[in-house]
Amino acid sequence: RDFCTLVHFRVFDDKRLVVVNQPATHVKAPCSKSFVRSEVILGGTILRPLASDPSKTEILTITAINAGGAADSRAGAMLMNTVATTAPVNFVRRLEASARSSP
Fold first, then answer.
1. Which of 24, 43, 46, 82 has the most C-beta neighbours closer than 10 Å?
2. Interatomic CA distance for residues 94 and 89, integer angstroms
């Protein structure tokens, strides 16, 4: 699968980071017969430091996608629902591991 999205982000005075994704087309990212092009209908993430412990971050992410291809079947939908519940947690774990390994 692949995606082509337009990403916009803004950092606010309270150190909150807001990221918004929407579907896009781009001449440098044409659809390929090698992949099913999934569509991010709308995605958003808010990261903000916890008031009680600014060294910790609260992450809220909402994403609506049309995965296309086999995901449009009943079995595919079940698989996508499973991935949707585990992927954000796995992403945060990888992000944390990456942050800990950076100098």
1. 43
2. 9
Q: What is the pLDDT of residue 9?
A: 95
**Confidence at residue 53, expressed as pLDDT on a 0 to 100 scale:** 94
Residues 6 or more apart in contact with residue 93 via CB below 8 angstroms: none
Nearest to 43 by CA among 85, 72, 8, 87: 8
In 3D space, the residue among 7, 63, 65, 62 whose CA is nearest the CA of residue 37 turns out to be 65
Helix, strand, or coil (residue 56) = coil
Distance in angstroms (rounded) separating the CA atoms of residues 89 and 78: 18
Higher-pLDDT residue of 61, 68:
61
Averaged pLDDT score across all residues of the chain:
86
pLDDT surpassing 90 at residue 72: no
Q: Which of 35, 102, 44 is nearest to 70 (CA)?
A: 35
Which 3 state secondary structure label does DSSP give 96?
helix
Cα–Cα dist 80/84, whole Å: 6
